[in-house]
Amino acid sequence: MPSPKDITRAVREGKGRPPSISYFIERPNDDYPTLYTLHEEDQGKYKSLKRLYLEEQDLTEYDFATKYIPKGFKAWERLCREPYFKMHLDQWRKELTLKIKAQELKRIMDLARQGGKEGHQASRFLVTKGYIDKDPKGRPSKQEVINETKRLAEYEMTLDEDYDRLINNLTSSDKTN
Prior knowledge:
Strand order of the largest sheet: 1-2
Number of domains: 2
Structural class: mainly alpha
Number of strands: 2
Strand content: under 5%
Shape: flat
C-alpha cells in the first residue's frame, strides 16, 4: 500500500494536486495511489480511515491530518469539504465525541467509588445527570432565525406550487367533462 509520502512524491513529480477523494478505494483514480477505505474495518491492504480517526482521538484533527493525510492539514481541510466524504466525517466526529465522553464518564464513576471530596463531587455530577447536554434556552441566534425563515419560505412555496397544480388539474378535468 502506498504511504502518504508516496502520494506526496507523485504530486511533486508533476501529476498535480491529487483529488482528495481519490485517497479511498471507494472512489479510485488511476493517476494517484489509493490509501484508505471508508469502511469500519480494514479492507485487505487498505486501512480504515474511520478506525484510524477514532483511535487517534484528536478533537482538533490537526495531529491526525498531519499523520495520515498527504500534504497535511490543508489537504485535510480540502477533503473535509468534499460532499462525499463530509457525510462520513460528520458521523465520525459524533462518534468520537461520544467515545471520549463515555471514557470520561467511566473515569468520573471510578472517582465517585473512591469517595473523598473528589468522589463526592463526582457522585453529585452523576446523580444530577450533569453529563446530559442541555438545550440552550433563550432567544434564538440571528442565524437560527434566518434558517427558520428560509425553511418556512420554502415550505410555503411548495404549498403554493401544490395548490396551483391541484387547481390546474381540477379546472382541466372540468373542461374535459
